[in-house]
Amino acid sequence: MSIWIAIAATAVGCYLVKLVGLLVPAHTLERPLVQRLAALLPVALLAALTAQQTFSTGQSLVVDARATGLGAAALALLLRAPFLVIVGAAVAVTAGVRALGG
Amino acid sequence: MAAGEGPGEAVPCVTLAVSVPGTPPEPGDASAARQDSAPCEGSSAPGETTPGRGDGPAPKPDSAVVRDALGVGIAVGLSGFAFGVTSAGSGLTLLQTCALSLFVFTGASQFALVGAIAAGGNPLAAAAGAFFLGVRNAFYGLRLSQLLALPRFVRPFAAHWVIDETTAVALAQPTRRSVRIGFTLTGLTLYVLWNLTTLLGALGAEALGDTEAWGLDAAGPAVFLALLAPMLRTATERAAAGLAVLLGLGFLPVLPAGVPVLVAALAAPAVLWLKGRAIGDHAGRTTRTQRKEQDR
Questions:
Q1: Structural domain of residue B294, as residue ranges?
Q2: Which residues of chain B have a CB within 8 Å of the CB of A19?
Q3: Interface pTM (ipTM) of the complex?
Q4: Tens-place pLDDT, residues B106-159
Q5: Do residues B92 and B213 both lie within one domain?
Q6: Are residues B181 and B256 both part of a single domain?
């Protein structure tokens, strides 16, 4: 049940911010500080999420096969690989390391 | 939405110079002119990108717009498979997984939510993290509303498709007609495919059984990394990312699940504040030096 509450809250919240952009007068969000914060907020969130979902299990910090997988994704990124290849590399390398007992 | 070719803010910035002069000067539409004030470092002067201003914009064949839209829509739409698998692997039911793609429809938020739920987080903290990731869509909507110039009653329907990819395609178009075609076709292709592949991914995950053995728990963080990398353009972004990683990992063992990522989000205002102070200090010093020189 609580998962449904989270889904509903996310759906409503995400829809409303999309709608706000289309409805508000242009100058409302054009203040430079608001713009800079809006650009920087996803950077902070994505960085934290990447780190957490790679280096933690529950509430403990761990280094396991996922770290190798993320390394492969980073390499694919540097080689300018397409999006699906980046994700595929992470999955394949993680699975490979686990299969080898890593 | 999860997207490799999705824009960091870089894409709209680069394309803005092209799309602004291209916007048809419709009567009574002052909003298009406001685009000139959008911050866009390093863009060329408007004059250079307006061949034949006054002759009207050079039209782009509809077929070229359709190619742009389908290319992005199909490539990114297929990655819904990764979301379906991750979501099912995080313990969400088939119905919950599909509801997320149908009603949230912005990939990064969806991945963040299922990740937080998998970690055993409080549902409202999980939703808050997903919500903050979705806030950037408001700023896409702001630019799109000027370019699309939709009637007010259409906007609530168009809003659901205001995401990274539709914005990137729409902002790259030279005329209002092609902006509208690009936005609508990218949105439609992506919405249909993303939801289909989500369903297939969730069904596939159930068939696979242990998704961790297949390395599928690495898909979520890889998606985040792919979204993040193009955004790390200047020292400010890198500092915010580095601080966020420290905060996110540092508070993970001590705060309830889902809360550390919200603490990490504070890295954004913190870095902006520090940067503002550094600039302020510098300005202050310069003024003092100048004053000293005047005293002499």
A1: 233-296
A2: 141, 155-156, 159
A3: 0.90
A4: 998 999 999 999 888 888 899 999 998 898 898 889 888 888 989 999 999 999
A5: yes
A6: no
